[in-house]
Amino acid sequence: MPQPLNYLKETASQTAGPYVHIGLIPAMAGFDIFEKNFSNVLVAPNTKGERITLEGKVLDGSGSPLRDVLLEIWQANAAGRYNHPADRSAGALEQEFRGWGRGGSDFDTGLVTFETIKPGAIIDKAGRKCAPHINVWIVARGINIGLNTRLYFSDEEAANAADPVLNLVEPPVRRKTLIATRSERGGKAVYSFTINLQGAEETVFFDV
Amino acid sequence: MNAQAPALRDPRLNRPEPFTPPLGDGGFFQRDRSIHPPAHAPGYKSSVLRSPRQSLLSIENSVSEITGPVFGHNDLGPLDNDLIRNYAKDGDPVGERIIVHGRVLDETGRGVPNTLVEFWQANAGGRYRHKKDTYLAPIDPNFGGCGRALTDDTGYYYFRTVKPGPYPWRNFVNSWRPAHIHFSVFGSGFAQRLITQMYFEGDPLIPVCPILTTIPDKDALDRLVAPLDLNASTPFDSLAYRFDIVLRGQRSTYFENRTAGN
Predict the structure, then answer these.
(1) Looking at the domain assignment, is residue B109 inside a domain?
(2) Does B96 fall in a domain?
(3) pTM for this structure?
(4) Taking a contact as any Cβ pair under 8 Å apart, which residues of chain A between 186 and 205 contact chain B?
(5) Which chain B residue's Cα is nearest to A150?
(6) Taking a C-beta distance cutoff of 8 angstroms, is the pair A28, A104 a contact?
């Protein structure tokens, strides 16, 4: 018998369930309990970068929007720097921009929105430039383990074409499932996305 | 001595021998999906239309995955880890008073410090304070049912609450959830993000729960069951249950590879 390695095993995931709002967004469950709450607004008045609204839906295998889904997003700031000590890239850090938010879907329409800024391009460990993107994590009733995906930006065609992760997606036709579409509303940029859990347009999900 | 009496699980059985490689800043250990419930688990009917059918695309962890949000004590209020008091209006909530405590560890056995742990649950009658929950058991006016804590330098967390009740739900006609507390944990990188549920030792609903039995690995299922921890109880006040949570470990970078030409 060789020496035992004795690694621990990761704790198994379980669904967040239909009442995930109680723990993570209690105001949506219908009550007020914490002094400080997390939200879908990532920007403060001093945050640098272009203000954007990110809005979209998560559709099930019948094409119906999930109305009890919760999304979290994690992103770099406008300089392409994550607010975390493991990001040692050169971009300027903004202490007050955490780069993380969570939002629940509307109980009637299924629409999820975030108020944030467009992140900058990121330099990976190999020195490659990665297209600006937002990391997305999805949990809900019926989702047994959180789903990881990304949102890229439709107006970044050249950067997207060179992005090392987008280029791993085969067949290439599936890459468009990761791209949020830019439009303008009242002078402000809105990026719209649809996350399809199943079907011909199924979104690319990652094992990260 | 009654041979049938359930043995208390020694929490140290979940522990490895001391093993502390350098703290990693590489990618996380490959997730062993065989211990997690599959996305498509027909016995849990809600998963059928909500499970991706294509293979997940495996990507090496980049800075996007090894980083994640950082939280601090400024994000929390003083009663956030006391569910007996954090929504009390005119008295304590009804139910068995319990303390839940444990450590957030990674797969190397190292405590995960300063990480946010959030928890939510039904009240002692099995009713959630949620506008979509219509179960006939009453809302407890003194119980909100959620809280949060930051782990200390060793990964330790604790909170106080009342033991949640089981409740029926629409899956099969007579499906009941075992008593459980939902947990959300962050870790240091977004790829460690985890939501799970803690169950209570000895609950007869555990082996018949359509959600719990989505987990294909018996040991992985057992690790979601918190043992009674009498040593951590407060005499004449509260029982205690212990629940350790393990997040993915992180690889160390022993040698930096140089890109060609540099």
Answers:
(1) yes
(2) yes
(3) 0.94
(4) 197-198, 202-205
(5) B64
(6) yes
